[in-house]
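SEVERITY: medium
COMPONENT: batch folding queue
REPORTER: lab tech (J.R.)

DESCRIPTION
The queue accepted two submissions in a row. Attaching both inputs and their returned structure tokens so the on-call engineer can compare them side by side.

ATTACHMENT 1
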Amino acid sequence: MAQAGIHSMVGVVVRKWSPARQWLVLGIVLGSLLPDADNLAVAIATVTGGSTEGLHRTFTHSLFTAAAIVIVFQLIGRFSKRPSWGNLGLGLGIGVVLHALLDLLIWFDGVQLFWPLPLWVNLWAVVTPPEWFSNLMMPMGMFFLALYFGGLIMLAQRQGTDLGRVRSLKVWTAVQTILFLIFLALVYTMESGFMTIFGAIYLLSLGLAAVITVQMRQTIETTAKSPEGFTKTLQT
């Protein structure tokens, strides 16, 4: 299962090397979330009894898809005479690439990095993780989202940005933490139906993370000017 929280945190940390352009860092974080939206296609195929082959870690994880996003948004920015749209598209493309590369490093599965070409890249092809570890990684997805939300809260309080949204974000952080604990118990005790329930909740959490990222864009964009902020926050 995807680890959207990890990808989001990496997207924010990358601001250390990002120029201070409007919507660029926002695009990087959103782009880091975007590839795992393919889980929606997997869920629909599962519910309808269709094949899930070729739906996960394929078209949304492709370098060609990232390039297409950048080109489309550059054109939008040019024709609308709003460079921020071009910055957003560049950020989205960077985020997609970061996501795919991070999947190769931290996940024991392949990525069709050059989709639609039938070429899969898997740095862990000779490694088979134990079942308990694979099971643990599913509820950990909720934990990492809670960590991402908590990091945004501390950043906002430190920078004095988006303070009006901190209270609700604290609630969502608590919700993700509770979901982590619930699914941590269920993944080892529930004999059937776990993936259906977990998959639905995870997709909702992924959408929530995207909405919160946009809502907290001032906090995220401010970090481009103070690259040490998020790292220090996670260490305190």
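ATTACHMENT 2
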Amino acid sequence: MKVVILAGGLGTRLAEETSTRPKPMVEIGGKPILWHIMNMYAHSGQKDFLVACGYKGEIIKEYFHNFYIHSSDYFVNLKDGSLDIVNNNGFDWSIGVIDTGLDTMTGGRIRRLRSWLQDETFMVTYGDGLGNIDIAKLVAFHREHGRLATVTAVRPPARFGELVLNGGSEVREFSEKPQTGEGWINGGFFVFEPQVLDYLSDDQSILEREPLERLASDKQLMAYRHEGFWQPMDTLREKQLLESLWKSGKAPWKVWS
């Protein structure tokens, strides 16, 4: 199954990092967040990726063009330029890095990939969100309900830390930015049948508006409820939060070994 990663936006709310690179290439623990997302999928056996590029997409293209060499050990013969790989990087992913336009909207980017998606079930996610979603269970849920589309519903992270008080002023529990206990929002991590492509009209099609609204109206959209960790990287503070979790050695999204 192909996994589409939407990686073409401007990332204006993270301008401190995105003035020189696209947001999916902003690093967490020395690796682009895009790498982390791919590892989440690969852990469940989903290793066939389509990266929908736009803003500064050439940086993503260069990264994957050089990935094999940069993550392997080798001897080079300077006489003829031949390489002898001695320690392979161990990755067996297939990655298509496709320019889907600078100003194309989310639904339009998926629509531009139609020829590569063919007539098969496919997955879609954003290039700036991490979570400990069980991808295998998500796919199983989608196949069981038989509708055209599945969206992963998540609890949004609280904006501020949570205090649990014991009667008066004594703090019984403190939790820094927990997931809220109320409401569900779109966390990405979609599974789509190929018919969903017919809901995408043109480059200006915004997936989260008319297409998903119409799918819901047609009773073709189901929600996979994820109660665990989920965190977008929209701001510098959120980037720093993800970085601190990674450095702690307890990053919840690191489901791979």
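NOTES FROM REPORTER
The radius of gyration is 20 Å.
No errors were logged for either attachment.
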